[in-house]
Amino acid sequence: MRLHAALAFAACLAPAAAIFEDDAYHIDFHYALLGLPKHEATFFQKPYAGSKASLLYSISQNQTIGAVNPKDGALVWRQHFPSEPRGRGHLRSGHEQDIVISAIGERITAWSASDGRLVWETTVGSAVVEDLEILEQEDGMTINEAKDVIVLLADSSNSVKRLDGKTGRAKWTFEDTSGDAPFQVSTSPTAIYYIALHTPRLGGSKLRVTSLSPVTGKKFDQYTLNSDAEISSRDRILFAGANTAAPLLAWTDKANKVLKVSIIGTKSVATFSTPADEIVESIVLHAPNHVNSLTHFLVEYQTTVGHSAEVYHVDLKTSTISKAYSLPELTSKGTFTTSTSDANVYFTRITEDEITVFSSVSHGVLGRWHVKRSSALAGAYPVHGQSEVVVKSGAASAVRSAILYSNGQWALLRNDELVWTRPEFLSGTVSAVWAGLPEQEALAQALAEESHRNPVSAYIHRVQRHIQDIKYLPAWVQSIPPRLLGSVLGKSKDTTVDDIQQDTFGFHKLVIVATETGRLAALDVGSRGKVMWNMDLSQFAPDTSFKTPTLKAHSGYVEVRDPSFQGSLFINSTTGGLLSSNSIKTHVPLVSEGQDLVSFTLVDGTLKGFLESQPTSKPVWSFAPAGGERIVSYTARPVVDPVASIGKVLGDRRVLYKYLNPNLVLVTAVVDSTRTASVYLLDSASGQLIHTLSHNDVDTSRPIPATISENWFTYALTIDAASGASSRGYQLVVSDLYESPLPDDRGPLGDTSNSSTVQPSGSKGDAVKPYVLSQSYQVPAEITHMAVTQTKQGITSRELLVTVPSINSIIGIPRSFIDPRRPIGRDPNAQEQLEGLMKYHPLINFDPKWHLTHKYEVLGIKDIITSESGIESTSLVFAYGLDIFGTRVAPSFAFDILGKGFNKISMLLTVVGLFVGVLFVAPLVRRKQINAMWTI
Amino acid sequence: MSRRVSSGLHREIPSTSIHQRCIIDSATLSTHDTMKTSISALASFASLVSSARLLLQIPTTHLVNPSTLPSTTHATLQSSGLPLDTYLTRSNTFNFNNVSAGSYLATVHCRDFAFEPLRIDVSVEEAVEGSGEMKEVIRAWQTFLGNDWDNKGESRGEGGNGLVIEARPVGQKWFYQERQGFSPLSFLKNPMILMAVVSMGLIFGMPKLMENMDPEMKQEFEEMQKNGVMGSGTTNTAQQLQNFDLASWMAGKTDSGSAVARAPSPAGQAKKR
């Protein structure tokens, strides 16, 4: 018996199809993204003093800190804070230090620069860190040990703190109770300057500069600059430079007509006028941030069509600022970067097609490179960047620049060549849909056309189509030998697919993604997530900002909607071009005579169903949960959800009929005060309540993901400890729906001769209620999102895909492990063993073999979408959010395709061997047969 | 305020269970646990106390060198609401500051290794009975997911503020499935192939054997074949097996004679005739 149980258990373990080691990194792909890097918090830096190579550190606009290897663009480490409110993130690093220091919200954290380990962390309570600087020098001497950190905190009153570089403990605190708006801190070898904006009730702001003693934090001096004529808002301040030998403060007026610069620590203000012949759109000030460098800076003027620049020198002895030279205006967009080498300062001008290096001293060109064109950067211009320059004997011999382009690609250019690009614009993906490939659509269209003609013309059309197809024959014949060779020698051509093309197995499917920055892009999941096209939605609607675009796939095009946009945009899914709504054949949903479509939506906490034909009329039904419950989310059964069998065959060959209502909607609702959660199953056609489940001791502040597929639904919750629940952790609840508790019985449907749960609208009266079987399990970590695999026919068993953010993984739980029919408290009997049921155990441990993401660490996933592939065994999976991840899964093994384990060479050798054997044996057999004839 | 509560209070079936089927295995509950701390009583202390500080440390073992763990390794203390979360430091520890009183599930999340879950209780007690001086006390135990929360395992440490608790790895995670490659040996082990090989051996081997027999034997054998001994012999043995008298054999009947005698008798008779 025990052996039986062990065998049954082993049999059940086996279907947990894991990833093969040689498939990993081939069938799946992962974009480990940071987000759009921030200009002032991105820098090249050596991870520790004496290191040969430097890394590229950045904090992105969504507050992810990371280090990127400048050689290949690979992520070295990153840290992401999902729970931080959107605010300003800061990242700084001291010269020759082995830590980088970040400040996000109230957390100030030091990270090991080489591997991203935590060094120390301090939180500042309710305050928010406004600025962060490293104290490079003290009393004019460079600090060699751990450099201290100066932070500016904004709370009810502002304060400046000096934190110990080794531990993060505060050495002193300076409190400012004046009520000014904190702006920035800046350090100099002798003092720390705290800059605040003093804004009277009327008029502009005055800059108030307070100098503090670095040692004690006591106030040395305070002065106010008369800037109220120009500074109407914060963004008029261009620069408050830190860690240069002469910290600068620069601001401009509303029209960008005048530029005012003051050396921090002096009250004098130098005034310059900006170029008068052009309308200056914005001014950017570039200054070196190295302590020992020359005190030169560059002012960049951006106009609508191009940009120009002026270089200024600061004379420290006389505290005067003078213009040194100006760079000519170019009629193309571009940017400047600053780099230092010893005391020398170099400015690099980067435009779409050229990189030029200048010295800060004179306007002579030290080096010039023509950037090679590349498809990833087509039509995009540089937005900002960082550079490293190597200058030998007065000429720039090499330059490398990490540049953020306007299309959201972060690229590294080494001299004239593009070394890598990172598609950082994908980091804010908010919506994604599967789109078919064009060939498929074209053929489908042609076939549909033929089916609508009379037989003769359809036949002629078909013959013509075939004649036209003959022109592809020579190319196809030519492609056979290399294909055969490649297939036999095991050289997969998957990675070398250049353009969108149809493949035999249907793995090449396009996913169209929309980002919160209003970009739309298409990725080919079959060729490791290659970006096919990438474009800005606002070019079609100039005065709209697409923040939460939603997508809907149609055949050959996608429909884009946004709350801030009237109507919808139609985008060709293969080219990314705009389609006019006239050229689109709208597909009328298949509704037979006398039927109406009901659509439903959440309105003011009530779920309401409307007739699709009359959306403004009175709702057909509405559902509001009782007892002050708040609807958290609702999930409907997928529209396309093929089911192979309408029943579940038991061990004794009897059948349990599945409850397959296509209109099922799962609504989760919570009551925060009593910590209860309820799950309601509704019929969306009638609005009728079909089933209810309720839970106590639920942490309602945590997500309750839910999904519904076939005849089962599942959801996960977190147990709240506050009321002393006797178990702890996270639960997964699974429910199966059957027509009747008895096998071979169709429940209430049994008497009627012609009815089905698949088409409940056809039956009279109320929807039939199912028999619900539930089981709950404990899972070791919190689940935030759920999805179910999809296959073409629904024959393959399904897998529940869950996102587990604590281990940055996506896990596929086989359906057999979460079958609510698992026997409790006893071993399964022979019939249950035949079904593959195993004994109930309260804990479902996440087997590492279930991890679809294996060694990838997938962060910030917002949703998972699945699609069928061309073959039944395999389902395509795509996950998006901060990272992009795609793979394919075969929950019942790849039974209809030869895997890489199939050795074609040894098969050929076996066939050859058998043939040779036959050649040898044939004469023997013939002789024997002849002999046998003669002997009889 | 008494902190000890009779142990019967918390012996209830998990209230989150929604169906009779999801009874969490409570048979192994330890009943002799005297340190049964009431969670609700602990929670009421939260307002009184500032906070406790504790450290989880990953020891260097033969299984794992903690310095090689990825920097995304982090630990959580979950009780209610947002869990306390902290990353792995350079000294291979997780530092939890500001832990308020309560009973926490401590989990170490790592990409490459699995760690045992811990139960960590933080409470505030009087240092000396009656002195009125309150002090944080931290206790840690092994815990078992899928079991009653009061079902604690081995103690993993007890002490005041700044207690260091070991977080032990239980195993490495293996993500990949071994692919069964094609090998001639496994091909030969296939029962169909084995059967084919044996029958091939018989077909080719038997004539050779016959040739090598000495003429007398051969003659006898041919005669036997002619008489159908070989042919009927097999059915005979089958018959013999079917007629096997288990009861008499069990009774220890000295039987080899009778059993053998009975079986070949038809053949023998045929011969005699």
From TrEMBL, chain A:
<keyword id="KW-0472">Membrane</keyword>
<dbReference type="InterPro" id="IPR058545">
    <property type="entry name" value="Beta-prop_EMC1_1st"/>
</dbReference>
<feature type="domain" description="ER membrane protein complex subunit 1 C-terminal">
    <location>
        <begin position="709"/>
        <end position="934"/>
    </location>
</feature>
<feature type="compositionally biased region" description="Polar residues">
    <location>
        <begin position="751"/>
        <end position="762"/>
    </location>
</feature>
<feature type="region of interest" description="Disordered">
    <location>
        <begin position="743"/>
        <end position="767"/>
    </location>
</feature>
<comment type="similarity">
    <text>Belongs to the EMC1 family.</text>
</comment>
<protein>
    <recommendedName>
        <fullName>ER membrane protein complex subunit 1</fullName>
    </recommendedName>
</protein>
<keyword id="KW-0732">Signal</keyword>
<feature type="signal peptide">
    <location>
        <begin position="1"/>
        <end position="18"/>
    </location>
</feature>
<dbReference type="InterPro" id="IPR015943">
    <property type="entry name" value="WD40/YVTN_repeat-like_dom_sf"/>
</dbReference>
<dbReference type="GO" id="GO:0034975">
    <property type="term" value="P:protein folding in endoplasmic reticulum"/>
</dbReference>
<dbReference type="Pfam" id="PF25293">
    <property type="entry name" value="Beta-prop_EMC1_N"/>
</dbReference>
<feature type="domain" description="EMC1 first beta-propeller">
    <location>
        <begin position="18"/>
        <end position="424"/>
    </location>
</feature>
<dbReference type="InterPro" id="IPR018391">
    <property type="entry name" value="PQQ_b-propeller_rpt"/>
</dbReference>
<comment type="subunit">
    <text>Component of the ER membrane protein complex (EMC).</text>
</comment>
<keyword id="KW-1133">Transmembrane helix</keyword>
<keyword id="KW-0256">Endoplasmic reticulum</keyword>
<dbReference type="InterPro" id="IPR026895">
    <property type="entry name" value="EMC1"/>
</dbReference>
<keyword id="KW-0325">Glycoprotein</keyword>
<dbReference type="InterPro" id="IPR011678">
    <property type="entry name" value="EMC1_C"/>
</dbReference>
<dbReference type="Pfam" id="PF07774">
    <property type="entry name" value="EMC1_C"/>
</dbReference>
<dbReference type="GO" id="GO:0072546">
    <property type="term" value="C:EMC complex"/>
</dbReference>
From TrEMBL, chain B:
<dbReference type="InterPro" id="IPR019008">
    <property type="entry name" value="Beta_sandwich_EMC7"/>
</dbReference>
<keyword id="KW-1133">Transmembrane helix</keyword>
<protein>
    <recommendedName>
        <fullName>ER membrane protein complex subunit 7 beta-sandwich domain-containing protein</fullName>
    </recommendedName>
</protein>
<keyword id="KW-0812">Transmembrane</keyword>
<keyword id="KW-0732">Signal</keyword>
<feature type="domain" description="ER membrane protein complex subunit 7 beta-sandwich">
    <location>
        <begin position="65"/>
        <end position="195"/>
    </location>
</feature>
<keyword id="KW-0472">Membrane</keyword>
<dbReference type="InterPro" id="IPR039163">
    <property type="entry name" value="EMC7"/>
</dbReference>
<dbReference type="Pfam" id="PF09430">
    <property type="entry name" value="EMC7_beta-sandw"/>
</dbReference>
<dbReference type="GO" id="GO:0072546">
    <property type="term" value="C:EMC complex"/>
</dbReference>
